[in-house]
Specification:
The complex is a heterodimer of chains A (91) and B (560). In chain A, 63% of the residues lie in helices and 3% in strands. Chain A has 91 residues and is mainly alpha-helical. With 560 residues, chain B is mostly helical. Chain B has a two-stranded antiparallel ribbon with strand order 1-2. In chain B, a hairpin with a 2-residue loop joins strand 1 and strand 2. In chain B, helix 11 packs antiparallel against helix 15. The longest helix of chain B is centred in the last third of the chain and has 40 residues. The termini of chain B are far apart. The chains are: A mainly alpha (91), B mainly alpha (560). At the A-B interface, helix 2, helix 3 and strand 1 of A face helix 10, helix 15, helix 18 and strand 3 of B.
Chain lengths: 91, 560
C-alpha cells in the first residue's frame, strides 16, 4: 500500500510533461486560441459559397461542431439498441 | 518489345509463389525487389490493348492500359513494397506469399481489358485474401470462412452477370455501362460487395481485424480499392452509387464511434473512406472521377500507415482493445507520430494527401449543385476526424496510462511507417505528381485561402466536440450488431428457437408414444399377468362342471 501511494505521489512530477495537469490546462488555452483564430480568419478570406448557407460566418466551425455532436448522439442512441458484450458471438 | 507482353501482376504472383521456398536472405531480396520490378514494368507499359487473344471465340485482353489502370497499378506496387517491408518480421511465410499473389491479382484486375479476365483475377484475389485472413491464426478461422462465403457469393453474381452480358451483347469488353439490365445489375452488385457496400458490409470489419498484425495492412489496400477501380471503369455516373456511397460514409463513422478494438475502428473507417469514392463515382463528372481515383491513391497509403501503426502496437503489446491500451506515446513516440500523420491524412488536414484528394470530391458535388450531398460530405468530413483522426491516436497512444511501456517495433516496421508518412505529407504538399496521374486533366487548386480556412475550422471544431463529448465516447467492452447478425447470431438464434420448438414437439410425441406403449403393456398385464383373467389356473372340478352344463344343454336342445 505504501509503495502504491509513493508511486502516485511521485507520478505528477516524474511522468511525461504532456500528461501533467498544468500543461494540459496550457494546451487547452492554446487550442482555444487557435480555434478563435481560425474563425477570425473568415474575415480575411473570400469564400465562394455554392449554396448560401455555406457562406455564413464561421460556417466550417459551427457546422463541424454540430455535425459531430449529432453524430455522437445518434451513435449513442443506435448503440443503446445494438451494442452487445464483445463475447456475444463467442459461445 | 517482348518484355511488354508480360502482365505485370504475374511478376508479383510468381514472387509470392517463390517466397516460402527461399532461404531468408534471398527471400528478403525477392520481397523488396519484386514490387520494384513490377512498378518498372507498369511504368513502361504504353497505352492501349497490349496483349490480346481469343479463347472459345471470346476476345481476351489480359493487359489493356490507360491512365486510370496505371494509377491503380502504381499505388498497388507501392503498397506491395511497403507492406512487404513492414512484414519482413512475419514468420508465417504463407501470409506473405498469399499477400503477394493477392496484390498481383489486384494488378491483374486493373489491367484487365475484358470481363472474363476481370473475373479470373477477381476470384484469385478472393482466394488469396482469404488465405491472408486465415494466417491470423485459430481465432481467424471463422471470420475467414465468412469472408470467403461473402466473396464467393460476389463471384457467383459476377459470373452470372458476365454470362448474361456476353449472351445479350456478344461482347466481353469491359467498358462504361448503365445499370439497365439484370446482368448489369448483377455485375454492379458484385462490384459493390467487394467495395463493402450494404447490406453485406460487415464482412470487412469482421475479417480484416482477424488477420495478423501485418496481414491487415495488405488486406486494407486491395479488395476495396479494386472495387472502386471497376466501379470507375464500369459504372461512372450511376446515380444509385451516390446513395450507397453516402450510406457507407455514415455507417463507417457511426460504427467506428461505437467500436472498442483499434483495428476494427480502422476497418470501419475503410468503409467510410470507400463511401466517399463510391459517392464520387456516382456523381460521375470528370472532377468527381478524378477525385475518386486520387482519393483511392491517397487512401491506400494513409490507411496502410494507420494499420501499420496499429499493427506495431499489436505486435509489441499483443493488445488491440482501446480499453487495454493508452499512454503508449511515452515509449513508442515514432509509432505514435506516424499514426498521427496517418490520422491527419485520413481527416484531410491541410498539408496531407487526404486534403488534396478528398476536396476534389466535395468540389464536384458543389459544382453539380448537389446541395444535400455536399452538406452530408462536409458533415462526414467532420465525422472522419472524430472517429479516426482523433479517436484512434487518442485512445491508443494517450487517453489513460495503461501502465504498459512497450518498445518501438523493429527497424523494418519503423522504416515502412516512415516511408508511408513521408508519402502522406509529400503528396499533400506537392500534389502535382498525383494530379498528373489522374485520368482526366486537372483544373483544380486545393490550396486556396477559403478552402484551407474552411477545412481547419471544420476539423478543429470537430476536435473540440470530441474532447467536450469525451464522456460519451468512453470505450466499453462491446461490439455493435450489424447485418451479419442474420448469418451469425440470427442463424444460431433460429437454431435455438427451432431446437426448443422441436424439443417441445418431440417431447409431446414421445410422451404420447410411451403412454400408448404403457397402456398396451398394462392391458397385457391385466389380462395375462399373475392375476389376469386369462392366466388363472382352473381346477378340474370346474371343467367337469362346465362339461356337464354343456352336455346338459346339448341334451335339452336335442330333445326339444
Amino acid at each position: 500500500m505504501s509503495e502504491k501511494d509513493k508511486m502516485a505521489q511521485e507520478k505528477p512530477d516524474s511522468d511525461h510533461w504532456l500528461v501533467r495537469p498544468e500543461n494540459i490546462r496550457k494546451l487547452w488555452i492554446v487550442f482555444i486560441a487557435i480555434l478563435a483564430l481560425t474563425v477570425l480568419a473568415d474575415l480575411f478570406v473570400e469564400h465562394h459559397p455554392h449554396f448560401g448557407l455555406d457562406g455564413t460566418f464561421g460556417f466550417g466551425a459551427w457546422f463541424g461542431f454540430i455535425s459531430c455532436v449529432v453524430l455522437v448522439f445518434f451513435s449513442k442512441a443506435l448503440g443503446a439498441l445494438l451494442k452487445r458484450p464483445d463475447t456475444y458471438y463467442d459461445e | 518489345m517482348s518484355d511488354f507482353a508480360l502482365p505485370p501482376g504475374l511478376v508479383l504472383m510468381f514472387a509470392g509463389a517463390l517466397i516460402p521456398l527461399l532461404p531468408a536472405a534471398s527471400r528478403m531480396a525477392v520481397i523488396l525487389l519484386a514490387p520494384v520490378a513490377t512498378l518498372t514494368l507498369v511504368w513502361q507499359l504504353p497505352d492501349g490493348a497490349i496483349l490480346a487473344t481469343t479463347y472459345l471465340d471470346y476476345e481476351i485482353i489480359p493487359v489493356s492500359v490507360d491512365a486510370l489502370s496505371r494509377l491503380f497499378a502504381i499505388v498497388f506496387c507501392i503498397m506491395a513494397f511497403a507492406g512487404g517491408l513492414f512484414s519482413l518480421r512475419q514468420e508465417k511465410l504463407g501470409e506473405l506469399a498469399a499477400a503477394f499473389i493477392y496484390a498481383g491479382s489486384a494488378i491483374g484486375v486493373v489491367f484487365a481489358g475484358d470481363l472474363i479476365t476481370v473475373f479470373v483475377f477477381w476470384e484469385l484475389m478472393a482466394i488469396a485474401s482469404t488465405v491472408v485472413v486465415w494466417m491470423g491464426g485459430a481465432s481467424a478461422r471463422a471470420s475467414g470462412q465468412r469472408y470467403a462465403v461473402v466473396h464467393f457469393l460476389g463471384g457467383v453474381m459476377l459470373m452470372a452477370g458476365i454470362a448474361g452480358e456476353v449472351a445479350t451483347t456478344g461482347s466481353t469488353a469491359f467498358h462504361a455501362m448503365e445499370p439497365d439490365s439484370i446482368s448489369r445489375w448483377l455485375i454492379l452488385a458484385a462490384f459493390l460487395v467487394n467495395a463493402g457496400a450494404p447490406p453485406l458490409s460487415a464482412w470487412l470489419p469482421d475479417a480484416y481485424p482477424a488477420a495478423s498484425w501485418s496481414g491487415t495492412v495488405f488486406l486494407s489496400a486491395f479488395t476495396t480499392k479494386t472495387a472502386v477501380y471497376v466501379l470507375l471503369r464500369g459504372f461512372p455516373g450511376a446515380d444509385i452509387l451516390i446513395f450507397f456511397g453516402l450510406y457507407m460514409v455514415f455507417y463507417g463513422i457511426v460504427y467506428a464511434i461505437l467500436e472498442n478494438d483499434m483495428r476494427r475502428i480502422l476497418a470501419y473507417s475503410i468503409v467510410n473512406q470507400v463511401g466517399f469514392m463510391v459517392t464520387a463515382v456516382g456523381i460521375g463528372t470528370e472532377m468527381a472521377l478524378n477525385g475518386a481515383a486520387a482519393h483511392a491513391f491517397a487512401h491506400i497509403i494513409y490507411k496502410a500507415l494507420l494499420l501499420m501503426s496499429a499493427g506495431s502496437v499489436l505486435y509489441m503489446t499483443g493488445k488491440s482493445k482501446c480499453t487495454d491500451l493508452g499512454g503508449l506515446f511515452r515509449t513508442m513516440p515514432l509509432t505514435a507520430t506516424c499514426g498521427i500523420i496517418g490520422a491527419l491524412a485520413i481527416s484531410a488536414f491541410p498539408a496531407t494527401s487526404g486534403f488534396v484528394s478528398k476536396s476534389m470530391i466535395s468540389q464536384a458535388a458543389g459544382d453539380e449543385h448537389l446541395g444535400l450531398v455536399w452538406f452530408l460530405l462536409a458533415a462526414a468530413s467532420a465525422g472522419v476526424f472524430l472517429h479516426a483522426g482523433i479517436k484512434f491516436p487518442w485512445f491508443v497512444f494517450f487517453q489513460k496510462d495503461s501502465g504498459m511501456r512497450p518498445k518501438e517495433p523493429p527497424i523494418s516496421m519503423r522504416a515502412a511507417m516512415v516511408l508511408m508518412s513521408f508519402l502522406c505529407i509529400y503528396l499533400g504538399l506537392v500534389p502535382g505528381p498525383l494530379y498528373a496521374l489522374l485520368p482526366y486533366p486537372v483544373d483544380y487548386v486545393p490550396y486556396t485561402g477559403s478552402h484551407v480556412v474552411f477545412q481547419l475550422q471544420l476539423l478543429l471544431f470537430s476536435g473540440l466536440a470530441f474532447f467536450l463529448l469525451l464522456g460519451f465516447l468512453k470505450r466499453t467492452l462491446t461490439i455493435t450488431l450489424d447485418f451479419d447478425w442474420f448469418w451469425r447470431g440470427g442463424g444460431r438464434a433460429l437454431a435455438r428457437e427451432f431446437n426448443w420448438r422441436g424439443g417441445q414437439a418431440w417431447g409431446a410425441l414421445a410422451a404420447r408414444y410411451f403412454r400408448a406403449c404403457r397402456g398396451f403393456a398394462e392391458a397385457l398385464y391385466r389380462h395375462h399377468g399373475p392375476d389376469g383373467i386369462l392366466a388363472r389356473t382352473r381346477p378340474t372340478g370346474s371343467m367337469t362342471f362346465w362339461m356337464t352344463v354343456m352336455l346338459a344343454a346339448y341334451l335339452v336342445f336335442y330333445l326339444s
